[in-house]
Specification:
2 domains; about 400 residues; mainly alpha
């Protein structure tokens, strides 16, 4: 995994290809996801507060908002990351050029078709995108015999299946609540984050700060297993007490896990502290989720600790880091990136803690948090558009 972000030493060479958008999966998928995150939340927050564009079902129903942030935004970033990581893990090619462009076109088609009279066409495009992504990482993993990471193929297929099930439930063709599938999607994203966070955050911290971080062998299966148990309990509709117990155990396990990664050693290094701060929101989410299962806090509060704080923050941190690493740039955040990191953390704090402190201010919290989120991802697009569309500084492919 360390090779994912390695930068070759030596003087830069002239770029082989001035335009490199389709050279590697992270480039177009990070850009479209960042642009979508900035624009869609701005539009949705405005529509939520004012009723503007309320004639569109995709804007009127909060379930579609949840769907698009999980299966649209977050899933695009996960696929972009995996297309890039799997090439490094296996030494085998992942989609580039025309196949990569076609995969991105499927994602774009699904987002556009959602606003047409043919929502099942959006479901078909979403399903095709998930299958293309699974094939794109599955073949190199198979050719290289890399079994350790083969479960990511199953995860992508599971995302696709949950996505299609959501579409069918919203169309009245599946007699199950659509909310169950957004929760499944969220829990799948959560599982990806705890797996990849456990791999890379302590490694990045140790490499950059020359500090000793620890990963306890007995704690890792508890941390990962408790999240899977929570996923299963939610999916199976177990009693609230069982869901609360799973969430509380997971919160304790992940609080202990991150404490051994020495987050306090990263305070002067934004490209590191954003990862630690965002992972800490997983602990907040799990604790609030235990309380929400017992009807002690609103479920949306727990959800947004995960979606804004953990997912938004970790995605922003990993997109900036991998974009820098894979374009031959120093692994140091600029002032623009640091501002984006601060804004996304503030967006999470406003969205989670303001409604807890003052329930009457919930609408204001949504609007303020949405604005902060949109500016944060707008800054990412502004900073990285020229970086992601141009060849590496060191002349290497990718």
């Amino acid at each position: 995994m360390a090779s994912l972000l390695q930068i070759e030493d030596g003087p830069p060479r002239p770029p082989a290809r001035p335009f490199a958008l389709w050279a590697l999966g992270f480039r177009p998928l990070y850009l479209v996801a960042g642009l979508f995150a900035a624009l869609s939340i701005a539009v949705w927050a405005a529509s939520f507060g004012t009723g503007w564009l309320s004639g569109s079902a995709a804007l009127r129903d909060p379930l579609w908002h949840a769907h698009e942030m999980i299966f649209g935004f977050a899933f695009a970033v996960i696929v972009g990351f995996l297309f890039t990581a799997v090439r490094n893990w296996t030494g085998q090619p992942t989609p580039e050029g025309a196949p990569l462009a076609a995969t991105v076109a499927l994602w774009l088609a699904a987002r556009i078709l959602l606003f047409t009279p043919w929502p099942l066409a959006a479901a078909a495009a979403d399903a095709a995108f998930a299958l293309a992504a699974a094939w794109g990482i599955g073949m190199p993993l198979y050719r290289s015999g890399n079994r350790r990471n083969a479960f990511f193929v199953l995860l992508l297929v599971a995302f696709g299946a949950a996505n299609v099930a959501f579409h069918l439930a919203m169309a009245g063709l599946l007699e199950l609540p659509a909310r169950r599938f957004t929760q499944l999607g969220l829990d799948l994203v959560l599982f990806v984050m705890v797996v990849m966070g456990g791999r890379v955050i302590p490694m990045f911290t140790a490499n950059a700060r020359q500090v000793r971080v620890r990963r306890l062998a007995w704690l890792e299966p508890i941390a990962l297993g408790s999240v899977l148990a929570l996923l299963g309990a939610s999916l199976a509709g177990l009693p609230p007490e069982a869901v609360a117990a799973c969430a509380a155990l997971a919160a304790a396990a992940h609080a202990l896990r991150i404490s051994f990664w020495r987050p306090w050693a990263t305070i002067r290094h934004p490209i590191l502290w954003i990862l630690h701060a965002s992972y800490a929101w997983i602990v907040v989410h799990l604790a609030l989720r235990a309380l929400a299962a017992l009807d002690l806090v609103a479920a949306s509060t727990a959800t947004h600790a995960l979606t804004v704080g953990a997912i938004g923050g970790l995605i922003l941190g990993m997109m900036t880091r991998t974009s820098r690493g894979h374009t031959g740039r120093p692994l140091q955040a600029s002032a623009i990136e640091t501002a984006a990191y601060a804004l996304i953390q503030l967006a999470a704090a406003v969205r989670v803690f303001l409604p807890l402190a003052a329930p009457a201010a919930t609408l204001a919290a949504i609007e303020i948090s949405g604005a902060l989120w949109s500016v944060a991802f707008g800054l990412f697009v502004l900073k990285f558009w020229p970086i992601l569309t141009r060849a590496r500084l060191d002349g290497r492919p990718g």
